[in-house]
Amino acid sequence: MTEPTFRTIIEPFRIHSVEPLRMTTREQRRTAVTDAGYNLFKVKAQDVLIDLLTDSGTGAMSRDQWAAIQHGDESYAGSPSYFLFRDAVRNLFPFEHVIPTHQGRAAERIIFSVLAGPGKVVPNNTHFDTTRANVEYTGAQAVDLVIAEGRDPVADHPFKGNMDIDALDALLRERGDDVPVVFMTITNNSGGGQPVSLANLHAVREVCDAHSKMLFLDACRFAENAWFIREREAGQGERDVVDIIREMASLADGMTMSAKKDPMGNIGGWLAMDDDELAQQCRNLLILTEGFPTYGGLAGRDLEALAQGLREVVDHDYLRYRIRSTAYLGDALQRAGVPVLTPVGGHAVYLDARALLPHIPPLEYPGQALAVALYEAGGVRSCEIGSVMFGRQPDGSEVPAALELVRLAIPRRTYTQSHIDYVIEVCEHVARGAEALTGYRLVDEPPALRHFTATFEPIT
Ligand code: F0G
User: Fold this and answer.
1) List of long-range contacts for 151-154, beta carbons under 8 Å, 24+ apart
2) From ligand 1's centre to the CA of 401, what distance in Å?
């Protein structure tokens, strides 16, 4: 019998436990955001209706993950929960050493403390903000070498996260001695949640081999990346995503990971690699600040939840729903004439604030203005990914970021289609009044990662 096909791709789960949302008035939201110095990171979560600040650690765990938590073994050393976790990681990424950390940036701090340092250069397709900060904190330089299409918000390319192979080769020719490792971020978060193709990963591997360099993956959204490969790359459409993930892993020498993304955890991360000596150095640092190597800053129950999450994220029904539901938001906004980065990425829709607010100069932070307006209008919390996040240079100067984006990140398995329909309406409402929005100036900022804690005032 032939299977009937239906247009609607539904959430492949039903709701088992609910969290109430708190409705607020525009007046309350205006007060909340003013008190927060116009920084949405400083707004209290109960004052937010739909929280699209991040997809990191904010997803819903499954029944089976909550059940796994009861299996958590909290032994300081050699917990069975660690071995379960390690084997779940190795099932996808068969690296010799799997080192748990409390989240991704802890893995970054450890690996760059060991490998980077003054005079060193670390290339990446695009560094995420904490990755860049951890490279720069050691005194090294973080260089982004994404393909030109990846810097153009509307260029049509199936793999806008790809590395510019010629640029990587040129950097390694010029500065090879100073490059300790090459990184690839899959999917490319700061570039719009855009995937990297298998062909590009193979090409990066070849360049790394030619220059005897290690290749590491920043693999937070590896399953979403693999699903895009399955959908978009020639010859991949029949493969199981697990095979695709293993092929990606086989091209790398190691990885850093935030388990708060595709592994479906509320907390967690890891560092993995094959090199014994490098692993030993990393473990030494781990013990100093994260914990013993079989828990690394996590509870046994966290490790259990992650092991289960790693099984769930490679489910094709889940990934089909996940990627489609993000596209649903992006497609609706495009139809409504709200400028978005295209093609739509995996975990988020990125609004193009530069296109929507051409009257606000980059250093008056159009993305910040748009994010604040979305919150004020409808209680939707988003995240500026533009000159606030990336404008301040290590030498203290300020330059406009390549793109002025506002990210609507979709927590995994958390919001329904009607929540997203509401978000679409809020965005349309704000876009209609875009001409009246004004820019912001900084009131104060910390020396690094300023977007988390800086405060602003509107330019009137
Ligand atoms: N790398 C990438 C590509 C990320 O997106 C993140 C986190 C990290 C590393 C750091 O991991 O948060 O566990 O320390 N991204 C979150 C976000 C915070 O909102 O995109 P972490």
Assistant:
1) 151/191, 151/402, 151/403, 153/192, 153/339, 153/341, 153/342, 153/350, 153/352, 153/354, 153/355, 153/403, 153/405, 154/341, 154/342, 154/352
2) 19
Q: pTM for the whole thing?
A: 0.95
Q: Angle, nearest 10°, between helix axes 366-378 and 417-432? A: 120
**To the nearest whole number, what is the mean pLDDT of the chain?**
96
Which residue(s) pair with 143 in the sheet?
A: 123
The residue whose C-alpha atom lies closest to atom 10 belonging to ligand 1 is 104
* Residue 449 reports pLDDT greater than 90: no
Candidates 188, 258, 383: which one to mutate for ligand 1, based on the most atoms within 8 Å of Cβ? 258
Residue 186 contacts residue 225 (beta carbons within 8 Å): yes
* One-letter amino acid for residue 159 of the chain: F
Ligand 1 nearest atom to the CA of residue 258, by list position: 13
Amino acid letter for position 414: T
CA of 261 to the centre of ligand 1 (A): 8
What are 233's two structure tokens? 């790359």
Rounded Cα distance between 428 and 382, Å, is: 15
